[in-house]
Amino acid sequence: MSNSAGSSVFLLLGPENGEKEKFITKIKTDLAKRMGEAPEEYHFYPFETDLSTVISILRNNSLFASYKTAILNNTEEIKRDEDISLLSDYIKHPPGHTTLFMLSDSTRVHKKIEKVVPKTQKKIFWELFENRKQQWVSEYFRKAGVTIQPEAVELFLDMVENNTRDMEKECEKLVLFFGERATVSEEEIEKFIYHSKEENVFTLFERIATQDFSAAVEILQKILQSGESNPAMLIGGLLWQFKKLKHLRELTDRRYNPEEAFLKADIKGRKNQRIYANGIKNYSSEDIQNIIVMIADYDNLLRSFRADMHELLLSIFLYYCIKRKGDKS
Q1: What does the pLDDT look like over 86-120, one tens digit per residue?
Q2: Rounded CA gap, 300 and 169, in Å?
Q3: Which of the chain's ends, N or C, has fewer CB atoms near its CB within 10 Å?
Q4: Which helix (H) or strand (E) holds 11?
Q5: In 3D, which of 98, 75, 96, 97 has the Cα closest to residue 87?
Q6: Do residues 9 and 123 lie in contact, with contact meaning Cβ atoms separated by under 8 Å?
Q7: 256-298 confidence digits (pLDDT tens)
Q8: Which domains does the chain have, with CATH numbers?
Q9: pLDDT tens digits for 3-21?
């Protein structure tokens, strides 16, 4: 099989990784049909493998298959002149036995790389609009024979990455847990997340509410080490809980008694009420608003930095959240 640059190199950008994966899978399937065998697959990250090694692997023939595909993740991180030159030369003159997919969650990579990729081989996968995400989740559950309430959809979307790949994975877990013909409420999703893991975003919030910094950091480490959660889910879950705390704080500031305030803020169960009561005892309205703004800032930071920086960033976030109450001045 002899490919030109136009058919063997793809630049796939944007945050919608679910559609991106479908695009790659279709090309791999077509290649397997044409070649009569599945191609050999490689995955690379610029911070793990030197780019000269990557190019060497792509150019060399495989001992195990007649064709290979390779995914180069985080292409936006390729910024050194030497690496840009190596990759640009490869894009201009690709071998006939390899298809390369260059991926990035960003919508731009270095302009010298973009310049040499044929326009027909560059595609941006945009994130779904909020209303489309809600429709997507509701439709997934409907097809599975499960009813999910609008408030539960909103909580679910706060807790997952905003792309259909991660949404589908988490939807599947919930469908398996609740079963066909179930009706899923916001409270039930909260219970599922709380009880499905030993440490999770709810136990983390509990330690934040009591201003226990060392325990919060320990829980954060356990969550990240388990591999069962990711920074986007943590940040989304904390945002959802701090918004609830803000509502409760506003009610108590308006002299609602505890029972009325918990009822209006939809905070049920003695344990939950105790956690949120600690929160309003330790954080003022200004503190909570500062933390909500800070969560948005750190959400952007986490999306910009490599995965090996996430634990450090989240630990710094916890310091400013608990020790400084959102005040970064």
Answers
A1: 999 999 999 999 999 999 988 999 999 999 999 99
A2: 23
A3: C
A4: strand 9-13
A5: 75
A6: no
A7: 999 999 989 888 777 889 999 999 999 999 999 999 999 999 9
A8: 5-124 (3.40.50.300), 197-323 (1.20.272.10)
A9: 433 369 999 999 899 999 9
Please give the full DSSP string across 107-145, using - where no structure is assigned: S---HHHHHHS-GGGEEE-PPPPHHHHHHHHHHHHHHTT
CB-based contacts of 252, cutoff 8 Å, min separation 6: 258, 261, 280
* The two structure tokens encoding residue 55: 């190019």
For residue 185, the one-letter residue type is S
Residues with Cβ within 8 Å of 25's Cβ and at least 6 positions away in sequence, in order, are: none
Is 160 in contact with 189 (CB distance < 8 Å)? Answer: no
> Is the pTM higher than 0.85?
no
Which tokens in the block code for residue 83?
A: 């690496």
- Residue 238: how many other CB atoms lie within 10 Å: 25
Q: Which residue has the tokens 């500062």?
A: 290
CA 104 to chain centre: 13
Residue with token string 């705390």: 245
Q: What are the beta bridge partners of residue 122?
A: 11
- The backbone torsions φ and ψ at residue 72, rounded to the nearest 5 degrees and listed phi first, read -105, 105
